[in-house]
């Protein structure tokens, strides 16, 4: 690794947020693709339903950005949505919240190491990237559920 | 979106490569977790085997970085590995290749828009991010295969 690489800045906060929201649009389509009666019921290999995974993803979005922005780490209690439409309402509220709060992150907090949610010692950037990667990971699992149900998932490249 | 955000640089090329290699270490563990006779045979919902997905991931790594670095987009023909150990050999060769070639990417090529592999018009950074996201996505699918086979996948947070 040359020292030249260390100073090459390739991603702006704006691109990072847009990338995240692009993934969130695709995950929203994935939620929509599930039949109402399968979203919270169907699973494979003893895993959680995709509805439960979506609740985890919802719970990580705004609290992660608030924690990175302010150093205050609070869990989000999404409650128990009883239907696909209630889940999508929660989803859309987080979309708005992300767009509002992400631009308030002070530049130095992306690199600053903090104890995220009281347990994960990493930079603000790493916590945000973890939340995005975690979403992509679980959505991939959801794609297998959909295929096993005979449903074609949304195109991966459409954001 | 404030103009302040536009100029906030949060990820260096070095961090991007390390993040990618961290994901690649986890995908390697996922390959290793498959029983020899299931890696290229088992699938769910009419999808590809995880071995076939891993070959796609292998085929996207170094060719993506070479294309971003040089503007020359060449497909990688991984051949048909007949065993887990042959697949892992290919994997490890790409790991070395990535570490060699990534630092040769000229800074301006991350933002420059090119026609990746003759068909995807996007910035160098977007092509690289797509390759990483695609790997996370397919690895998530592989996790469901493993669970359905009664095998515990590697911890997602261990890189």
Automatic annotation (TrEMBL), chains A, B:
This protein's record includes keyword Magnesium: no
Molecular function in Gene Ontology: metal ion binding
A Pfam family recorded for this sequence: DinB
SUPFAM superfamilies according to UniProt: DinB/YfiT-like putative metalloenzymes
The entry's keywords: Metal-binding
Record has Lipid metabolism as a keyword: no
Binding residues annotated for a divalent metal cation, in chain numbering: 138
Family to which the UniProt record says this protein belongs: Belongs to the DinB family.
This protein's name: Damage-inducible protein DinB
């Amino acid at each position: 690794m040359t020292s030249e690489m260390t100073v090459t800045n390739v991603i702006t906060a704006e691109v990072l947020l847009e990338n995240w929201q692009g993934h969130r649009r695709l995950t929203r389509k994935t939620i929509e693709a599930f039949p109402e009666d399968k979203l919270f019921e169907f699973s494979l290999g003893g895993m959680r339903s995709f509805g439960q995974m979506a609740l985890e993803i919802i719970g990580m979005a705004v609290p992660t950005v608030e924690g990175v922005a302010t150093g205050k780490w609070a869990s989000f209690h999404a409650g128990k949505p009883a239907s696909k439409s209630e889940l999508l309402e929660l989803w859309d509220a987080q979309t708005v919240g992300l767009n509002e709060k992400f631009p308030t992150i002070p530049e130095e907090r992306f690199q600053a190491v903090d104890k995220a949610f009281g347990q994960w010692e990493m930079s603000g950037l790493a916590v945000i990237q973890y939340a995005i990667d975690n979403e992509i990971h679980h959505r991939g699992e959801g794609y297998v559920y959909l295929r096993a149900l005979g449903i074609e998932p949304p195109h991966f490249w459409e954001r």
